[in-house]
Amino acid sequence: MNQKIAVLDFGSQYTQVIARRIRECSVYSEIMPFDTSAKRLKEEGVCGIILSGGPASVLAKGSPRPDPKIFRLGIPVLGICYGLQVMGKMLGGKVVSSKHREYGLGELSFKNGGELLKGIGSPMRVWNSHGDKIESLPDGFRAVGTTENSAYALIEDQKRKFYGMQFHPEVAHTPKGMQIIKNFLYGICGCTGDWKMSDYVERAVEKIRQTVGDKKVILGLSGGVDSSVAAALIHRAIGDQLTCVFVDNGLLRKGEREGVENLFKKNFKMRMRTVRAEALFLGRLKGVKDPERKRKIIGKTFVEVFDKAVKSIGKVDFLAQGTLYPDVIESVPIGGNPASLIKSHHNVGGLPKRMKLKLLEPLRELFKDEVRALGAELGLSKEVLWRHPFPGPGLGVRVVGDITKKRLDILREADAVLMQEMRESGLYYNLWQAFAVFLPVKTVGVMGDERTYDNVIALRIVESQDAMTADWAHIPHDILAKISNRIINEVKGVNRVVLDISSKPPATIEWE
Ligand code: XMP
User: Fold this and answer.
1) Rounded to the nearest 5 degrees, what angle is found at the Cα of 14, between the Cα atoms of 8 and 16?
2) Nearest Cα to 102, choosing from 134, 136, 127, 137?
3) Pairing of strands 94-108, 124-136
4) pTM score, whole prediction
């Protein structure tokens, strides 16, 4: 059994980030409801309790409170933001609403730093986001650090092992925050860092088995990182009770269907159903030029095809999705827990409700890099885990203008050349995305002695951290020259290759 930290959730948008930081310290944590009883925490043998931040004000009537008995368990408690205020108030301190709401970067000063500040020099940059503040301390506490607006920005009661801070140590804007969390876990709670990703697999497998029982699960496999890892994990847990459905919509890249089938059907021996629906998709897309209409048609047709495939499988109770934590909606409903509101996956939006399926989302607490680590643990290759993002509507957004089979085939060939060169040059894994786009213009060229009038392929190769902003990648000219030569020589129907050198914004990554 791993040592365990309980994170009591008061609804902060950062609660999952706290849990993630704890995992980064190789310590197991569980997010639990804010009112989890002291009895349960004791039974579970937690070695530390963190009270998260939250959108409420402790001064408001009915604002959430933890079980008061948690302060009598003899277990270290760390309150963050709302967690600090609620602890301060419940232990006899005074909380007031601050005149100046402290939001954004601040500076924490300290002289004789407390236990949480070991190894950190004063002043340190901290990220604040709070309206209330502590005005007088509960008995036994002392102020350890101050900010411009708050004399009690970091407080502690070393005897009872209670600690609290106004600011958020878990966010990247508090650069030394990890050290504070480490000090709490290792120095105060006695954690030894006994948790690893393989332990996560074990727990997740157990949880999936309990949730699913002897029922059946269906999963829409796209071949992307998230659905692949979800499939591998669920398959590890329930084997043949899982059926994956892969829809070939005719808008896939070269060799994609075969690749997914080889991996999951042959290697993992999963139950997998491939639906070949190219004719249906292309039929409905015929003559459609408007990108938004294309997306709608592709999305609607996908749902229809998927729905039909599910029905043909027989009784299914769960729909599995590879939803990650960053997919959880970002705006925090006032007073609510953001994690309760999810953005339905754009590829299967609306499906679960209509089909009366329960959702199974085993990656919901994880961040992308953790999902990759989990995938590696489950035996997925680097090629799968570090694949570039590929949009749900596939090449449908990469053929500008009319989508025809002929255009798609030309694009597939050109894209395959680009992929091969990106991989062979070793650049692939340094890039956010590299892909080819088919342009609906013909231009004049000359091949041998003959005049040609053929298509143009654009290369879109970008660097980015999160796709919100992106810049075109400065690929060495000799590699670009090779790609261009190869596409023009090897792909029939292309006589010109151009390079997209626009950043996002104002351009987007996809052309559509
Ligand atoms: P844009 O073109 O908006 O794209 O700069 C940002 C990132 O999102 C990807 N993308 C999608 N991914 N379904 C997806 O799963 C979609 O419908 C979709 N549309 C765009 C795009 O490839 C880029 O990485």
Assistant:
1) 65
2) 127
3) antiparallel
4) 0.87
Residues 38-50 pLDDT 10s: 999 999 999 999 9
Residue 328 is predicted with a pLDDT of 58
- CA of 326 from ligand 1 middle (Å) equals 15
Which atom belonging to ligand 1 lies closest to the Cα atom of 295? Answer: 17
Query: For ligand 1, is residue 508 a contact (CB within 6 Å)?
Result: yes
Q: Is 433 in the pocket of ligand 1 (CB under 6 A)?
A: yes
CB 342 within 8 A of CB 300: no
Residue 376 backbone class (left: φ over 0; alpha: ψ -120 to 50; beta: rest)? alpha
Residue 320: predicted pLDDT: 96
- pLDDT above 60: residue 268: yes
Asked if 97 and 59 count as a contact pair (C-beta separation under 8 A), the reply is: yes
Instruction: State the average pLDDT for the chain.
Output: 92
The predicted model gives 52-58 an average pLDDT of 93
Smallest CA separation from ligand 1 atom 20, residue: 391
505: preceding bond cis by omega (within 30 degrees): yes
Report the nearest atom of ligand 1 relative to the CA of 507.
Answer: 5
What value, to the nearest 5°, has the Cα angle with vertex 29 and ends 25 and 30? Answer: 160
Residues with catalytic annotation?
A: 81, 168, 170
> Which structure tokens are listed for 252?
């896939």
How many angstroms separate the CA atoms of 486 and 442, rounded? 19
